[in-house]
Structures are given as C-alpha cells and as structure tokens.
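Q: For a teaching session next week I want to show students how multiple molecules come together into a single three-dimensional assembly. I've collected the sequence lines for a complex. Could you give me the predicted structure tokens for the whole thing so I can convert them for display?
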Amino acid sequence: FPVQPKTESWNSIDLEKVKGYLDKFFPILAKTQNLSIEERIKEMQRFFHLTVTGKLDTETEGIIKMPRCGMPDVAK
Amino acid sequence: YQTFPGTPKWKKTHLTYKILNYTPDLPRRKVDDAIKRALMVWSDVTPLQFRRVHMGRSDLEIKFGIREHGDGNPFDGPGGTLAHAFKPGPGIGGDAHFDDDEKWSEVNKDINLFLVAAHEFGHSLGLDHSNVHGALMYPLYSYENPETFKLPEDDRRRIQKLYGKKPS
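A: Of course. Below is the structure for the complete assembly, covering every listed component.
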C-alpha cells in the first residue's frame, strides 16, 4: 500500500490553534462537508492570496498570528 | 467580495448609537471622537445619518469588554481578535464590541480605535469581510494615519450598493 504521507509536523502553532482559527474564521458551512485540515488551510490561503499549499508554511502561520477582526471571513 | 447572505441592511437611514462604557486606555472625549469619526466614514458616502443617544435602546450599541462579555462570543486576551460587530437587525444587531485586553490608542503605537471602529461599523451596516488588500473591510488589522484616512474604493462601492450614494 502507498505509504500515507506523514502529516507535516506542525510549526510552533499547534494543530489545535490552527483548527480553532479555521473554525472561527473559515467555518465549515454545511454538515455534509467533510474537509481535511489541508483543504481548509487551502481555503484560507486562497482568501488571503497566499500560495495555496494546504500546509502551515511560514506566511500562513504569519497571517494566523496577526491581530484582526473577530468576524468570520466566509459568510455563513 | 461578499455581503452577509440575504444582505441584511437597515431599512432606515437615520440610525442611533449609544456608547455603553469606556476603555481606561483613552480619555472619554477621545473615545467619543473616534466613534463619531468612524461613523462619519460611512455617513460621508451614503444617505445614512447617525445620532448619539444616552438613554434607552439604540440601533448600534458600543461597548468594551474582555473574554466572555455577554454575547457568547468571548474575546481572547491581548492580540488575536480585536473586536467584533453584529449585522443589522433588532436587539444585538448592529452592536459593536471592542476587546479591552487590547491597548487602545489614538496614535500608531497601539491598536487604533478609530480604524477598528470604522471597520466594525461596516459590519454593523451589513458588510462582510473583503479579501481586497487595503480595503477597510479586510479582516487583518494594519495601521495607517487616521488623520489622512480615506475610505477605499472597494468599501465605498460596497456600502453604496447597499444604501446608495449620499444625496448631493
């Protein structure tokens, strides 16, 4: 069987924090949606015009750390 | 760009606002002035008019709070989330809340109250976030001189799509 790609070891921001950020600002809008964390990171990277990698690279991590408005970025 | 689904907007152009409390970071009159100028960002380009009230309910209720502050949407301490606001509607609709774990300021060293308030009032009037860099409704905070602030084209076009232009 193909070896499953090892999930990238997350940078200093832990996976929980990334998930919390995505849940708050890029909420999954339909119960039927079952997106992987990589897919959800891609959605955020598209919104902020970042390179769409699905990985928590440095520029993506930088965005997550920036002060911001508490409203979601995708309309429910 | 997006507006809230169904594009909730106020069905009237004369809106009232009330400042429920103050941050200890700034003199009250500086808070009053920042809020007033932030509302003018939107009334300058639409038929909307804002009147401050001190008693009773108002359309836009403005308050400072930390962590859980009564709306089930807790703030997160210093940094991170600075403020949030609710789309047009009755009750909490239109209200704007500011995280008092931030250091609010009038100059650029800390978080500028005028800039954040102008953004939040965009939500109070029915705008959602924009992904246009430089737009006022872009979700990430970045400082610019409030003295020379001019509403970016993306925001002006979106708010006038909701409420029309300011009558000449």
